[in-house]
Amino acid sequence: MPKKQPVIAIVDDDASVREAIMSLLRALGFSTEAYPCAEDFLKSGRLDRTSCLIADVRMPGMTGPELHRHLVGSGNPIPTILITAHPDDRVRTRALKAGVVRYLTKPFDEDELIGGIHSALGHD
């Protein structure tokens, strides 16, 4: 039976960030899906096929950390990488204690992102 292709969901209200991450990951052979907000991701019906989530910390509506807490609390603990243009040590510390795989500051090095994805997928 062939292995299921990991799907990486990108949730960011900035379309240019979503597109850039999608392009990078697709070039590396990953299957991606992108959403402009956490609510769209939650309504997508695709949580069960998502292997890794990349979410912006600051978004209108539900934030990245809130999305991660919601997923864990509802029994869908998707490995999550948080990205932000507004780093905050308190948010970073809380997120990492809550089980977030990585907390990256924009603009981040693509190797940092890829390393986080490999950690999230258990390829360490």
Tell me the layout of helices and strands.
Elements: E1 7-11, H1 15-27, E2 31-35, H2 38-43, E3 50-56, H3 64-73, E4 80-84, H4 89-97, E5 102-105, H5 110-120
Parallel strand pairs: 1-2, 1-3, 3-4, 4-5
Main sheet?
5 strands, parallel
β-strand amount: 15-25%
- Physical arrangement of strands within the biggest beta sheet: 2-1-3-4-5
Order of helices and strands: EHEHEHEHEH
Coarse morphology:
globular
- Bin the helical content: 25-40%
Radius of gyration: 13 Å
What structural class do helix, strand and pairing data support?
A: alpha/beta
Report, as a whole number of angstroms, the end-to-end distance: 24 Å
Number of strands: 5
Tally of separate helices? 5
Mean pLDDT: 94
Describe the structure.
This protein has 124 residues and is of the alpha/beta class. It is built from five helices and five strands. The chain has helices at residues 15-27, 38-43, 64-73, 89-97, 110-120, and strands at residues 7-11, 31-35, 50-56, 80-84, 102-105. The chain has a five-stranded parallel β-sheet with strand order 2-1-3-4-5, sandwiched between helices. Helix 1 links the parallel strand 1 (7-11) and strand 2. The relative contact order is 0.17.
Task: Give a brief description.
The protein is built from five helices and five strands, in the order βαβαβαβαβα.
Give descriptors for this structure.
5 strands; alpha/beta; 124 residues; globular; 5 helices
